[in-house]
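Exam revision sheet. Question 4 asks you to relate a sequence to its structure. Input first:
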Amino acid sequence: MYSSMISELICREYENIASEADGENRIGLQVDFSVRNGSPSVWDFDEDRYHRYRLLVCGKHSYTGVYLKEMRLHPDQESDWFCLAVHDSCWRSDGVKSFIWRAGDFISGFKGIGNPFQRVKISDVEEEEFLRLEKERITNRVEHPLFMRT
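Answer key, structure tokens:
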């Protein structure tokens, strides 16, 4: 039940942001989640296991992409972005809802104080990276370890 509510909140918040966009700039919604130890990760952990998932929903024109990155505090590291979904309508189910469903057992809360939703402007460099990831996902099916669980 909570995963459905969180997914719906994220999708609605992004749709509100996207409706205010001017069509030229790519804007997005960023949400950071604190995660528990034992969550699927891109890193092989040794001693420090504190990390979080960063979900980014962004689009330009009619297509919306959903991307995932891991952030680790000690040492300060970030993984590469993973493209979870890019679609005109299925980004909600294939990207946001799928992520929340799979990560639900590991999410311990939102990261940050106050509003967990951050509006971000996507730079040209990031846009090029996301386009590359979208193509890579289509051709190679590169996935985050969270999505490789059975």
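Marking note for examiners. The first helix runs from residue 2 to 19.
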